[in-house]
Write a structure and sequence with these properties.
The complex is a heterodimer of chains A (218) and B (465). By secondary structure, chain A is of the alpha/beta class. Chain A has 6 helices and 12 strands. Chain A has 2 domains: 35 residues, no CATH class; 171 residues, Rossmann fold, CATH 3.40.50. With 465 residues, chain B is of the alpha/beta class. Classes of the chains: A alpha/beta (218), B alpha/beta (465). At the A-B interface, helix 1, helix 2, helix 6, strand 9 and strand 10 of A face helix 2, helix 3, helix 4, strand 1 and helix 8 of B.
Chain lengths: 218, 465
């Protein structure tokens, strides 16, 4: 143990001379967790993917969004987005096999991201309906910078991976060790640092377009 | 006039400062109010947030050990620092070992508290502040004036002038959008060229060894991902037991800070780059800093260790909104700063801060973890009195009042005299100048006393029943 750590722990022990046992701490924590459900904003009152689509387009998150039924439709959505924003069909495609397997005819794609990338296309692990949040787990198929360097980010998210509340997402990987980065992305980059005025595209993407893929059978 | 009073006088005379403070804090207050109104469960969440922090602080030794063990398993290197100086030495040492020429830094109040910007510069390492507001004040050579909006004291016109002088090809700088775009272009290459990225941590997750950063701009991730080395500096009180508790704390923190439900970017960083990862740091260091936290624990300020650094207390403080952050002369301004600073810098140096408070209780009311700030501020005032730090005129005024207050006949006599003398100085129902009242009348008028003393009015009222 380093001298600094020893000194810090000695100071803590002096201020708190009777530490609780591990079972007592665990029991207290269980009691605290039992109170979480009653504190969550009670607003997810429908299928999570539908609430998510509403939330991401609400003024607070201010992303644009749409739903497609099949993965095959995704390249056309990206092409349409590029046209609407007058962008060249030259995209940084997140190196995920599910994206690479799609037909990107008509687009030039590359699997790395440039410092000044204009348009990147990605795949999120999932989403959270409560807050309209996309979740990315870093991996060889999901480099972190894809979500931060481009000016426009178009992201597909499978409807089945949209959880109601943040705690539901946490519970989904209970027991598994977390990836290097878990990124929650809730809207495009923004800043209010000059006189509190909100401006998009501070350092990260200025535009975020979300595409929910699939829907529950009617 | 002492140094604090000098800073306050200068701030009150600065009309531009008042405009800048109002523009940001008015927006922050109205957004927070709307966010809380849309969350009926807020009161319960606040109690839970308070109890989670109290639980962690009461069991700090247990959770610190747990965090260290789990972080080490992910490949993180853990360092411990007793003081700010020790923390700076560790960070500079890591930078030197990495042969760092350039370091990017994402906003961290702990970094400001321990003097890290100065330490990096003293070591000859280029420091690039990446948060837009920190970038602004770095260019201006100033200190932060708010913990969420460090450049709150700057108007858009002043920012435009700064960027014009310092940015390469700034283009037109007439709108805030143009200023933000210029900063984006100018900082882009700096992010990618940095050897080391330094961040703070909003939370330390004990059961995974992860650290959590919260930003709206995305600068934290651009600071921590491209460089070869990521260094985290975090206060030892930043612990939460797990991701579950982090979610509760995030709901409270973000609504209280900016009125949003979640910041645009919330990232949990767990160790260095993994096999096959395309990006991410090869080295991941976490410096756990005491710098007075254990002293606060021992001094009866454990409640202050709940603080999430949201800034709501200063946005709602009537004193902060008049004088701004620089007048406090410390890293942490406003109500939370008036409690923390005397502990960090000593009461003798910062005795004025607990007195710069009306005790109206707004800060406690808006605090997302219910810190009893007025009680803690009163505690410092008591200590200042006991240790003899009160200014002589205040001490004498209080002694005279005490003498009269326990002698009702004399007290009534004095009240009656004041009632007769004060109207002599009134014009049109208001007193704008009066001997011994310059501290009050310099900035506002006093109403002319009317209708007799309280006791006289009370007797009249009783007799009329």
């Amino acid at each position: 143990m380093s001298n600094a750590k020893k000194a810090i722990f000695a100071a803590i022990r002096k201020a708190l001379p009777a530490p609780a046992s591990a079972p007592t701490i665990a029991a207290e924590l269980t009691q605290l967790r039992a109170r979480v459900t009653a504190t969550r904003p009670d607003r997810v009152s429908g299928p999570p993917d539908e609430v998510f689509l509403d939330r991401v387009q609400s003024p607070g998150v201010a992303a644009t969004a749409e739903r497609i039924i099949s993965w095959d439709e995704f390249p056309a959505v990206v092409m349409r987005y590029a046209e609407q924003h007058h962008l060249a069909p030259n995209i940084a495609l997140q190196p995920h096999p599910d994206l690479e397997a799609l037909n990107w005819g008509g687009c030039q794609t590359h699997d790395h991201i440039h410092t000044d990338e204009t348009l990147a296309v990605g795949l999120a692990l999932g989403g959270i309906a409560e807050t309209g949040t996309l979740i990315f787990h870093s991996s060889p198929q999901s480099p972190t910078l894809f979500a931060f360097l481009p000016l426009h980010h178009v992201v597909a998210v499978p409807y089945k991976n949209i959880w109601s509340w943040m705690e539901d997402y946490v519970a989904s990987f209970d027991g598994k060790s977390p990836p290097r980065n878990v990124n929650f992305v809730t809207g495009a980059s923004g800043t209010t640092d000059i006189e509190g005025a909100l401006v998009r595209g501070a350092h990260g993407p200025g535009w975020l377009h979300i595409v929910v893929v699939g829907a529950a059978a009617q | 006039m002492n140094a604090f009073q000098g800073r306050v006088t200068a701030a009150l005379a600065d009309a531009t400062l008042k405009i800048a403070i109002d523009r940001t804090t008015n927006t922050a207050r109205s957004k927070r109010t709307a966010a809380i109104a849309a969350w009926p469960e807020f009161a319960k969440a606040r109690e839970l947030g308070r109890d989670i922090k109290d639980h962690v602080i009461a069991n700090m030794e247990y959770y610190l050990n747990q965090f260290e063990t789990n972080a080490k398993k992910t490949g993180a290197k853990i360092h411990w620092a007793r003081t700010g100086q020790e923390a700076c030495e560790i960070v500079v040492g890591i930078c030197k070992a990495a042969n760092a020429k350039s370091v990017t830094r994402s906003k961290s109040m702990l970094g400001e508290e321990i003097g890290l910007p100065h330490a990096l510069e003293a070591a000859g390492i280029e420091r690039v502040e990446t948060d837009l507001a920190e970038h602004i004040i770095q260019l201006a050579g100033e200190a932060p004036s708010h913990i969420i909006w460090p450049a709150l004291h700057k108007t858009r016109e002043q920012v435009g002038e700064l960027f014009k002088a310092h940015h390469t090809d700034p283009g037109a700088l007439e709108t805030v959008e143009q200023m933000v775009n210029s900063a984006r272009r100018n900082l882009r290459e700096k992010f990618m060229a940095a050897d080391v990225g330094i961040s703070g941590a909003n939370f330390l997750i004990a059961d995974t060894g992860a650290i959590c950063t919260v930003t709206n701009e995305g600068n934290a991730e651009l600071t921590t991902t491209p460089p070869r080395v990521h260094i985290v500096t975090a206060g030892i009180e930043k612990l939460v037991p797990s991701m579950v508790e982090a979610m509760t704390m995030l709901r409270l923190l973000v609504r209280s800070a900016t009125g949003a439900e979640l910041t645009q970017y919330t990232t949990f960083h767990t160790g260095p780059k993994r096999a096959g990862d395309v990006d991410g740091p090869e080295e991941f260091h976490i410096v756990l800093v005491d710098a007075g936290r254990t002293t606060m624990l021992a001094e009866g300020l454990a409640e202050m260790l709940r603080c999430l650094r949201c800034g709501a207390c200063m946005n709602h403080c009537v004193v902060y909104r008049q004088i701004g952050g620089h007048a406090y002369g410390a890293t942490y301004p406003g109500p939370m700063g008036s409690v923390i600073t005397p502990s960090l810098d000593g009461l003798e140096k910062s005795q004025d801060l607990p007195r710069a408070c009306t005790l109206n209780g707004q800060c406690q009311e808006v605090c997302p973890v219910a810190i009893p700030l007025p009680k803690l501020i009163r505690g410092w005032r008591t200590k200042a009195w006991v240790q003899g730090y009160e200014p002589l005129h205040t001490a004498w005024a209080l002694r005279i009042w005490e003498f009269l207050a326990v002698r009702p006949v004399l007290y009534q006599l004095a009240s009656n005299m004041a009632l007769r003398i004060m109207p002599v100085f009134a014009k049109g129902g208001w007193i704008s100048k009066m001997p011994l009242a310059g501290g009050w009348t310099r900035y506002r008028d006093m109403p002319k006393p009317q209708g007799g003393t309280f006791l006289a009015q009370y007797k009249k009222h009783q007799a009329a029943k």
